[in-house]
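Q: I'm building a small set of examples for a reading group on sequence design. Run inverse folding on the following structure and report the sequence directly after it, with nothing in between.
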């Protein structure tokens, strides 16, 4: 996962310390232009996130900060969904594409090098993310304005602070939060 928010190094240490397998370079070097580490999501958590979202065949799943592509690939292989994974790290995106090719789903699981804050999320039925709180807070207005009513959003470990989760579960010591984009209420002019 990557971004250009200028997150403090202590924040990166905290994310690595969550128990995930941090594969970033020693000394908190996360790659050129990256300041958030890549932390793998365990396979049982991947499955639980997709089940929590009730992903259906043919739906579009967007993975923000896709890492090695495991979430988008699982959405395609196990649920029959189409998926797009966005990550700022070209190495992770190349790895994701190769993993999708090996899984036989490169026709349904696509990956792009793109900052998650600039990614096209408008076509999503489901958005999955394992992002730091600062990124989630920055992204939240876009989730509300660009996603359709009822779009499911699943966040790994960190809640969307200004939303109330529809469901919250713990899998492998990780808290997963399910949200639905609410109905837009038109503004009334006086």
């Amino acid at each position: 996962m990557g971004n250009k928010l200028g997150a403090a190094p202590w924040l990166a240490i905290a994310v690595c310390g969550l128990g995930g397998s941090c594969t970033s370079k020693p000394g908190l070097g996360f790659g050129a232009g990256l300041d958030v580490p890549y932390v793998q999501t365990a396979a049982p958590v991947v499955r639980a996130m997709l089940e929590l979202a009730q992903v259906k065949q043919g739906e579009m799943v967007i993975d923000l900060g896709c890492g090695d592509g495991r979430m988008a690939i699982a959405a395609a292989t196990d649920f029959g969904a189409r998926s797009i994974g966005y990550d700022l790290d070209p190495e992770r995106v190349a790895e994701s594409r190769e993993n999708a090719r090996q899984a036989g789903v490169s026709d349904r699981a696509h990956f792009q090098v793109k900052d998650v804050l600039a990614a096209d999320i408008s076509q999503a039925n489901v958005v999955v993310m394992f992002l730091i709180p600062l990124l989630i807070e920055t992204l939240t207005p876009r989730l509300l304005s660009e996603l359709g009513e009822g779009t499911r959003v699943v966040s790994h470990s960190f809640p969307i602070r200004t939303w109330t989760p529809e469901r919250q579960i713990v899998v492998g010591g990780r808290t997963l939060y399910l949200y639905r984009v609410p109905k837009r209420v038109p503004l009334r002019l006086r």
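Residues 90-103 form the longest helix (14 residues).
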